[in-house]
């Protein structure tokens, strides 16, 4: 929900999705092409600054969206930095931190940060319907786009069901004590599981009723400054790649 809220309320909502897609692609290329970890981290910092300062995404919201990915990246970097040594006897296990692997860990982590910043730039500045329209113009498989649309719709249905259930439980003081909170949480999980199953069946029946009669469609927005946006995106993306190669 935070991503969708940012995508519809940022300053660059009316910028061409193709331009933002080119910028995101150039950011990932720059992160991969960076010759040093410092260069990859620099690419990530620039993309973060462009997203927060340029598009006007609140810093706290940006960090909340990036937090799960950053946690996963931290665990992955730790697993790469640590090596497990098994001795000859049973139970002889030890952890080692080889110094030779530090540079490799920094390189992988820097590139991952750059790619993450590039993807967050696109996701937090472009609504999913515009991204799907862009993918359709790029001749992406229609089956994949239909699945994306159904998942997108189900996400809002699921969120609304969770909010309504929590509101009803709170009105009956279902979260007044720890014991009641645990009980209410169990009821919430059971109720949502049943609702998701029922609504998934309804979506399946609706899809069968359409008899696969063409893909799902959205109304496309008009972007009058597409040429200008594309020029700025290509220039900025090229400069970002050159900067990554130089640093």
Main sheet, how many strands, which sense, barrel?
Answer: 2 strands, antiparallel
What is the molecular shape? Answer: globular
Helical residue percent?
A: over 70%
Mean pLDDT score, rounded?
A: 83
The total of beta strands comes to: 2
H/E series = HHHHEEHHHHH
Query: What oligomeric arrangement do these chains adopt?
Result: single chain
- How big is the Rg? 23 Å
- Count of separate structural domains: 2
| End-to-end distance | 36 Å
Low-confidence stretches: none
Percent of sequence in beta strands: under 5%
How would you characterize this protein structure?
The protein has 247 residues and is mainly α. The chain has two domains: 2-126 and 222-246, no CATH class; 136-210, no CATH class. Helices cover 74% and strands 3% of the residues. It has a two-stranded antiparallel sheet with strand order 1-2.
Which helices and strands, and how do they pair?
Layout: H1 2-9, H2 17-33, H3 37-54, H4 59-81, E1 83-86, E2 93-96, H5 102-125, H6 128-137, H7 142-171, H8 178-210, H9 226-246
Antiparallel strand pairs: 1-2
Helix pairs in contact: 2-3, 2-5, 2-9, 3-5, 3-9, 4-5, 6-7, 7-8
List keywords for this structure.
mainly alpha; about 250 residues; two-stranded antiparallel ribbon; 2 domains
Can you summarize this structure?
The chain has 247 residues and is mostly helical.
């Amino acid at each position: 929900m935070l991503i969708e809220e940012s995508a519809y309320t940022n300053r660059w909502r009316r910028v061409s999705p193709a331009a933002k897609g080119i910028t995101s692609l150039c950011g990932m290329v720059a992160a991969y092409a960076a010759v040093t970890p410092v260069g990859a981290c620099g690419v990530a910092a620039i993309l973060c600054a462009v997203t927060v300062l340029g598009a006007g995404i609140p810093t706290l919201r940006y960090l909340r969206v990036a937090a799960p990915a950053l946690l996963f990246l931290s665990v992955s970097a730790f697993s790469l930095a640590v090596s497990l040594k098994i001795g000859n006897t049973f139970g002889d296990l030890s952890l080692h931190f080889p110094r030779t692997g530090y540079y490799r860990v920094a390189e992988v982590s820097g590139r991952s940060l750059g790619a993450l910043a590039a993807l967050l730039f696109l996701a937090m500045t472009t609504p999913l319907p515009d991204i799907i329209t862009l993918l359709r113009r790029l001749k992406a498989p229609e089956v994949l786009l239909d699945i994306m649309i159904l998942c997108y719709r189900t996400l809002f249905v699921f969120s609304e069901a969770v909010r309504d259930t929590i509101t009803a439980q709170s009105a009956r003081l279902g979260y007044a004590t720890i014991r009641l909170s645990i009980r209410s949480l169990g009821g919430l999980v059971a109720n949502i599981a049943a609702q998701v199953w029922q609504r998934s069946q309804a979506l399946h029946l609706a899809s069968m009723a359409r008899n696969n009669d063409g893909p799902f469609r959205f109304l496309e927005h008009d972007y009058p400054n597409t040429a200008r946006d594309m020029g700025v995106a290509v220039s900025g993306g090229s400069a970002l790649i050159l900067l990554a190669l130089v640093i």
